[in-house]
Design goal:
alpha/beta, two-stranded antiparallel sheet, about 20% strand, globular
Length: about 260
Amino acid sequence: MSFSIIIPARYASSRFPGKPLAQLAGKPMLQHVYERACQSEAIRVVVATDDERIASCATGFGAEVCMTSSDHPSGTDRLQEVVKKLQFYADDIVVNVQGDEPLIPPRVINQVAHNLAAVPEASIATLSEPITDAESLLNPNVVKVIRDHRGMAIYFSRAPIPWPRDAVLAQGGKLDSMPEGFNWQRHIGMYAYRVKLLNDFVAWPPAPIEATESLEQLRALYNGAGIHVEEAVEAPPTGVDTPEDLERLRQMLEG
């Protein structure tokens, strides 16, 4: 089994322009991501960007770069442009590693790729981790996932699924403490794809459930694509969304 990694890296960001080039422990953040990716079992690691400044930085530390359009409506569309330009085969496996995750564990990358290769009925593989507090279960920014006995995703939602009816009734219509009896899971947004799925995905119109939940992966489920989900062997650290996130990470690494 072999797989490749694509690292999308955009300069434009409403909350943090130029984020991939921000310095962290003496290196651009993108270089940290690239070096972590290279520590995985991937046979190829490609940085995908629409910005010459990022391309110049990436080639400077030895990365392969694929220039992409700046007009993509989603990250999945950008991945599909890369696999098309680089002439990947339909059954090739690619892992999407975000350019703002400088501490991504290489063995988590390996896990999601191996899972997809091992499950022929899956077109996508992704990961999750347990939810341990009621606040997270109720938080719409924490995406929940439920799966069947084979590990295949049934649904992703911003709502608490499944809804713990009896626990809520017992707590007087509220959910102040984490209910027992179910292993609630938070979705971790790391994906491995078969290239055929990427080609199909960009041809599908946005699904009603995707638009309602604002969750892109629901387009795949809506169109019958199988998504395999497994608990991550190691919880990936939170990525960098804002300058404040970067400063906290910088203090942790340099302190």
